[in-house]
């Protein structure tokens, strides 16, 4: 029973970390991806320098392994949450890690939109803002949803890693009970819960993307 | 309604500058369907995209409904574009919106209320025969239906001008005809001015009032459509016309065709009935006057606007002495005669 309570709390912590960091990352990553796309050469807000800078930041951030990023940003985490340990502290590196990933995923989803649609909208007298809101994002929605699903699934994995340095959640539980106390029952249960979480997330994402695809 | 003056478009490519359009001058009158025909790569798409400035011309003036478009600010240009509808080869419908919402798009952009939208869209659905497809998504529609949605969408903001960029090129011939018929209806009921580009002579033939040929970035021949078919001025125009009424000799004759006259042969002629001659019984006249046997191998008479034009291939059999006077007579009656070759008399034609 004690184990079940532990597992339940750890699951809630994981969901909390993934949810908050996912939302924060999406809030920054979505516009970042849109700007990446629109500032591309030959695109509606073509700005080669801006594109280069944004793309370089994406590549740099994405090349740092999460376990290193997590430790490297501790000073920032301290400033933002006041502590470098715990679930809230884990949210900072998780968000930072997911942001550029979402930006790229959104950019790629937007690149899939037929440029003929942008042309048609321009011919109708649409402004750049209208093209983004009424054409690009709705048309790329299934791709964006698939990308966000992918991000959330990755975040579930990374959140377990955050557990290794006292971040709480299922990873923390697995390491403290399953690994350090040789409690293979807890270990097994955390694995099962993580698999269920990932499966549920993927299923939900697929259904949502399909709903929006209208194919 | 649409005036293009001294329009030039130059591109810079890695191999140097290319002139895509050279000194284009076009005047499309109000309520007219004006067609521009040209082969691929002639610059048709660039030309029509210049009319609403999707493509910025290098120099020249574009005047639509009395407004000089090249002089407008960004916001003014957006407003002007709302009054210029456009349809495309690949329809360019939003897959995320159903038929009704696709047609609503230009109205949303212009800030209409839901009620105003419904009042505008319902008659358009009726006009384009899409009322029962209102809630269907583009993926569920046929090509012809998609283009009808695109036409309804282009008409939603009540434009005075409609641009058609190869709108029927992705459709089968039958659907093409229904779309062209729809365009004609719209022109008649809404007094719209339509500028279309195409590579198909059949499109020009079945719906245009006037036509111009675009060849390597230059407009080389412009005429009223009936005149264009009956009095083609350039060889390129003639080629377009022949290709649209393409005729081949039967294979049996083709095989025995001789370039020069020899004993015991008879001529094969191609006759062009252009200036009003297609409606006269000229063939029967020469048959009777010169006592010749005339075998019609191929014949095609087209009625374009109020003009009839015909192309015919015939074999002339009879006394050799009477054949030359018969050809002379045909020419006198303004029939254009072209001797394709000679076929031995013993070949069954």
Describe the structure.
Chain A has helices spanning 2-38, 48-63, 66-72, 74-81, 87-111, 115-123, 128-163, 169-179, 184-213. In chain A, helix 1 (2-38) runs antiparallel to helix 7, helix 3 (66-72) crosses helix 5 (87-111) and helix 4 crosses helix 5 (87-111). Chain A is mainly α and 215 residues long. The termini of chain A are far apart. The radius of gyration of chain A is 20 Å and the shape is elongated. The mean pLDDT of chain A is 91. Chain A contains 9 helices and no strands. Helix content of chain A is 83%, strand content 0%. In chain B, a hairpin with a 2-residue loop joins strand 1 (2-13) and strand 2 (16-28). In chain B, helix 3 (99-109) packs across helix 4. A 6-stranded mixed β-sheet of chain B has the order 6-7-8-3-9-10, with helices on both faces. Chain B is an alpha/beta fold. Chain B is elongated and about 80 Å long. Chain B is built from 12 helices and 14 strands. The longest helix of chain B has 18 residues, at 173-190. Classes of the chains: A mainly alpha (215), B alpha/beta (349). The A-B interface holds A 114, 116-117, 119-127, 130, 134-135, 138-139, 141, 212-215 and B 52, 54, 77-82, 84, 86, 88, 90, 92, 94-98, 105-106, 108-110, 137-139, 157, 163.
Question: SSE order of chain B, as H and E?
Answer: EEEHEEHEHHHEHEHEEHHHEHEEHE
What general outline of chain B do the C-alpha atoms trace? elongated
Helices and strands of chain A, in order, run as HHHHHHHHH
Task: Quote the average pLDDT of chain B.
Answer: 89
User: Strand-residue fraction of chain B?
Assistant: 25-35%
The neighbouring-strand order within the major sheet of chain B is: 6-7-8-3-9-10
Overall geometry of chain A comes to elongated
Distance between the termini of chain A: 48 Å
- Could you state the oligomeric state of the chains shown? heterodimer
Assign the structural class of chain A, choosing from mainly alpha, mainly beta, alpha/beta, alpha+beta, or little secondary structure. Answer: mainly alpha
Largest sheet of chain A: none
- Total strands of chain A: 0
């Amino acid at each position: 029973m004690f184990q079940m309570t532990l597992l339940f709390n750890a699951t809630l912590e994981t969901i909390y970390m993934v949810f908050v960091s996912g939302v924060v990352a999406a809030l920054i990553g979505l516009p970042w991806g849109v700007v990446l796309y629109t500032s591309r050469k030959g695109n509606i807000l073509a700005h080669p320098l801006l594109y280069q800078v944004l793309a370089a930041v994406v590549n740099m951030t994405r090349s740092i392994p999460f376990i290193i990023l997590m430790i490297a940003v501790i000073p920032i985490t301290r400033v933002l949450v006041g502590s470098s340990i715990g679930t809230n502290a884990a949210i900072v590196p998780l968000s930072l890690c997911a942001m550029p990933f979402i930006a790229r995923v959104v950019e790629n989803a937007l690149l899939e939109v037929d440029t003929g649609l942008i042309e048609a909208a321009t011919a109708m007298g649409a402004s750049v803002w209208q093209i983004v809101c009424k054409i690009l994002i709705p048309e790329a929605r299934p791709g964006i949803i698939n990308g966000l699903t992918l991000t959330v699934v990755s975040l579930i994995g990374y959140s377990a890693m955050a557990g290794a340095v006292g971040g709480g959640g299922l990873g923390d539980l697995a390491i403290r009970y399953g690994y350090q106390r040789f409690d293979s029952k807890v270990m097994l249960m955390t694995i099962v819960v993580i698999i269920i979480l990932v499966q549920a997330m993927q299923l939900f994402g697929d259904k949502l993307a399909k709903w929006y695809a209208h194919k | 309604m649409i005036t293009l003056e001294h329009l030039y478009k130059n591109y810079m490519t890695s191999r140097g500058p290319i002139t895509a359009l050279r000194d284009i001058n076009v005047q499309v009158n109000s309520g007219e369907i004006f067609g521009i025909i040209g082969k691929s790569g002639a610059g048709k798409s660039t030309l029509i995209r210049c009319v609403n400035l999707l493509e910025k011309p290098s120099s020249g003036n574009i005047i639509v409904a009395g407004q000089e478009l090249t002089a407008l600010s960004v916001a003014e240009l957006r407003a002007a574009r709302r009054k210029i509808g456009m349809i495309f080869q690949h329809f360019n419908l939003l897959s995320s919106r159903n038929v009704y919402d696709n047609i609503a798009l230009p109205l949303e952009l212009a800030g209409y209320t839901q009620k105003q939208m419904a009042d505008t869209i319902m008659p358009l659905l009726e006009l384009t025969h899409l009322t029962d497809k209102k809630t269907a998504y583009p993926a569920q529609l046929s090509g012809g239906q998609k283009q009808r949605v695109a036409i309804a969408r282009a008409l939603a903001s009540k434009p005075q001008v409609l641009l058609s960029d190869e709108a029927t090129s992705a459709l089968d011939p039958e659907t093409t005809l229904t779309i062209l018929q729809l365009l004609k209806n719209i022109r008649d009921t809404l007094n719209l001015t339509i500028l279309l580009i195409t590579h198909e002579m059949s499109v020009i033939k079945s719906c245009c009032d006037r036509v111009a040929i675009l060849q390597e970035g230059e407009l080389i021949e412009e005429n009223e459509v009936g005149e264009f078919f009956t009095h083609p001025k350039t060889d390129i125009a003639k080629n377009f016309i022949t290709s649209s009424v393409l005729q081949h000799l039967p294979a049996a004759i083709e095989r025995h065709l001789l370039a020069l006259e020899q004993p015991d042969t008879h001529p094969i002629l191609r006759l062009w009935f252009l200036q009003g001659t297609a409606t006269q019984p000229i063939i029967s006249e020469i048959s009777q006057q010169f006592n010749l046997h005339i075998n019609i191998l191929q014949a095609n008479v087209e009625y374009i606007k109020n003009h009839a034009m015909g192309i015919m291939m015939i074999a002339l059999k009879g006394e050799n002495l009477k054949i030359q006077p018969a050809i002379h007579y045909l020419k006198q009656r303004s029939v254009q005669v072209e001797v394709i070759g000679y076929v031995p008399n013993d070949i069954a034609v």
